[in-house]
Amino acid sequence: MGSADTLQAFRRDGRIVIVGASLAGLRAAEALREEGFTGSLTMIGDELGEPYDRPPLSKQVLTGWVPAGNTTLPRRRDIDAQWLLGVPADGLDLATNHVHLADGRDVPFDRVLISTGVRARPWFVEAEAALDGVFVVRTREHAESLQRAMAAGPSRVLIIGAGFTGSEIASICRERDIPVTVAELAPAPLVGALGAMIGGVAADMQRTHGVDLRCGVKVTKLEGDAQGHFRRAHFSDGTTIDADVAVVALGGIRNTEWLRGSGLAAGPWGIACDTGCRALDLNGLITDDIFVAGDVARCPNPIYEYRLISLEHWVNAVEQAKVAAHNMLSAQADRWPHLSIPTFWSIQFGVNIKSVGVPTFADEVVVTQGSVPDHRFVAAYGYQGRVTAAVSFNNAKWLDHYRQLIETAAPFPPPCPTPDEPADAKPVPVDFPSPKLLAQGATVVVTGHDPGERRVTAAWQHHQ
Questions:
Q1: Are 118 and 312 in contact (CB under 8 A)?
Q2: What is the Cα–Cα distance from 312 to 459, expressed in whole angstroms?
Q3: Could you report the per-residue pLDDT of 12-38, keeping only the tens digit for each?
Q4: Which candidate, 97, 31, 98, 89, places its Cα nearest to that of 277?
Q5: pLDDT digit string, tens, across residues 86-132
Q6: DSSP helix/strand/coil, 69
Q7: How far apart are CA 407 and CA 304, in angstroms?
Q8: Which of 71, 115, 160, 327 maximizes the CB count within 10 A of its CB?
Q9: How does residue 59 score in pLDDT terms, banded at 50, 70 and 90?
Q10: Does the fold of domain 350-429 match that of domain 120-252?
């Protein structure tokens, strides 16, 4: 679509398919219509219902404040789309421009947006995962089922994994006066996302609020009774606990398996794309008609040395969707880059945690404002002498200041903008745990001998 006439014809009569009826998919569809696209628009989703909001599932839905059915995303406008729901995509043919569906149908496209997101990582033993009382939290049905189980007044809830979702659910348990045990293989909660120092603060918060927090241990077995109800968990240190509910909060799996054989640079870490949200193939070439947005996208960011970054953030999904939609309808010279600074928030144990930037892209961290014992502070992250991120506990009003420091590559440690700088503030190593990969990325190998025939193929590795 090089000429203006061809592009105009596409905007008028083209075929766009969005695979993933998600937050990113819906917002992209709305943006396409807002920008004047009048061609055919098809939405493909593996769930039967219309797109809904996921952050409330581990927050307001579990507290009972919001029914799971009330999380449907509001429509900003009519998108006039054909909805193909309840049937997942299971293949993408770039040679013929078709999306293959699991029921055998083929959906043709001129351009496609992939926004298939992530799914919950299940418990690794299928029979134990099927016990009544064992839950994951990713869909509306998951949250609704867990809310009913918590409302029934379990004797104890076991949460496996102390990331953001696991920690939020632990907080809700204590709000409802439900005894809760949290098991985390790492040395502290949130340590994989925010480092050891903040992990220590999170651990203190949990224990102060009565959580039975067990770090550095692994759940080895979930035991059920004769009726198939979960009743007991076994730990790697030889101990056991009795509980009625177990929540598996071990992160997500990006939905990319359906793209095997497509030729795209897709794997367990997501789908590689450029800053314009155009997907890359295995040879690193840009595919002009394939776009990616949301949790499944791996996008480079110049602030972080153009490293490919996957983000499971609500704001990131919305912003990427808008960029992808605009670029699908635009000539090369008019396309936008997705260069926003990531933001994230969580509420746990009465504390509002917010971040800006990418904390995992850091080698040092320092408390620049407030008091750690009071759980009211800001910590700045630095990498090789420049500011790369900041995290606030009940002190988010200063995050715009830190965003500016990140955008301007300000020196680290940064000067404190207020009089509440701790007297003994000194940078310490950020100390992320050694990565324990639950899924390996695709291994790429160069094949052929003639330089004119060299191609890259993906060798998918299977791990227990």
A1: yes
A2: 26
A3: 999 999 999 999 999 999 999 999 999
A4: 31
A5: 999 999 999 999 999 999 999 999 999 999 999 999 999 999 999 99
A6: helix
A7: 10
A8: 115
A9: confident
A10: no
Q: At 119, list the tokens.
A: 């799914």
CA-CA distance, 239 to 183, in Å (whole number)? Answer: 12
The DSSP code for 48 is S
Nearest to 18 by CA among 6, 10, 26: 26
Looking at the domain 120-252, which fold is it?
FAD/NAD(P)-binding domain (3.50.50)
Give the pLDDT confidence score for residue 205 in this predicted structure.
97
Q: Please state the pTM of the whole predicted model.
A: 0.91
Cis peptide before 108 (omega within 30 of 0): no
Q: Provide the total of helices (H) and of strands (E) in the chain, helices listed first.
A: 10, 31
Nearest 5°: phi and psi at 225? -90, -175
Q: Distance of CA 20 to CAs 61, 245, 313, 322, 329, Å? A: 23, 31, 16, 15, 19
Q: At what angle do helices 314-328 and 23-34 cross, to 10 degrees?
A: 40
Q: Given CATH 3.90.1150.10, say whether it is the number of domain 3-117+255-329.
A: no
C-alpha–C-alpha distance, residues 139 and 320, integer Å: 22
CATH number of this structure's domain 350-429? 3.30.390.30
What does DSSP assign to residue 365? E
